[in-house]
Amino acid sequence: MKAVFSLTQTIRFLLVSLLALATASCGFHLRGNYMLPDDIAKLSLTSFDEYGQLKRQVESQFEMHGIDAVPPSETVPNLHLISESVSERTLSLYQNSRAAEYELTYTVRYNIVVPEKGTQAYTTRVNRTFLDNPLTALAKSVERDMIEEEMRQQAARQIMRQLARLTAVFNKLEEAELEAMLNDGADSTTQLSEPGTATP
């Protein structure tokens, strides 16, 4: 029984070691809850509102996931927050035709620039429902502010998830560019190898 237990421990140790080696070899490291590429171990953050709450939420995510926030530079990847907005859509009405329930949509637009790889634009949306009680105007205002803050937090987490997928996105772009170059090269070779018209 003791030998079986030792064998199980050994196998478990080997599996963990292999997983660690595989993770290290593909250029990823565990940072917080996401697998973030080495390309963004250092990242600059710029925003349409340098002192806004959204930027603070993203900075907090940087700290949580071990990303060094550095000043903008041509050699450093950049996350640029372009804009944020909140829109609402009526979901239900009171008997007097006043809106009773809204769906709030918080939208963030941002760019990720990685030197020598390119730029990608993204849009993140977060939806929440909100009850409009006309008898509690002050409480309603406070509740809405809290909901919007929660949506900012979720949007910041979604931005981090997108960063985790960044390497795969740029790898696909590089593969598409390489394939296009190879196709262009093949077309040129075909044109050059076509026989010319013989002169009598």
TrEMBL record:
<comment type="function">
    <text>Together with LptD, is involved in the assembly of lipopolysaccharide (LPS) at the surface of the outer membrane. Required for the proper assembly of LptD. Binds LPS and may serve as the LPS recognition site at the outer membrane.</text>
</comment>
<protein>
    <recommendedName>
        <fullName>LPS-assembly lipoprotein LptE</fullName>
    </recommendedName>
</protein>
<comment type="subunit">
    <text>Component of the lipopolysaccharide transport and assembly complex. Interacts with LptD.</text>
</comment>
<keyword id="KW-0472">Membrane</keyword>
<keyword id="KW-0449">Lipoprotein</keyword>
<dbReference type="Pfam" id="PF04390">
    <property type="entry name" value="LptE"/>
</dbReference>
<keyword id="KW-0564">Palmitate</keyword>
<dbReference type="InterPro" id="IPR007485">
    <property type="entry name" value="LPS_assembly_LptE"/>
</dbReference>
<comment type="similarity">
    <text>Belongs to the LptE lipoprotein family.</text>
</comment>
<keyword id="KW-0998">Cell outer membrane</keyword>
<keyword id="KW-0732">Signal</keyword>
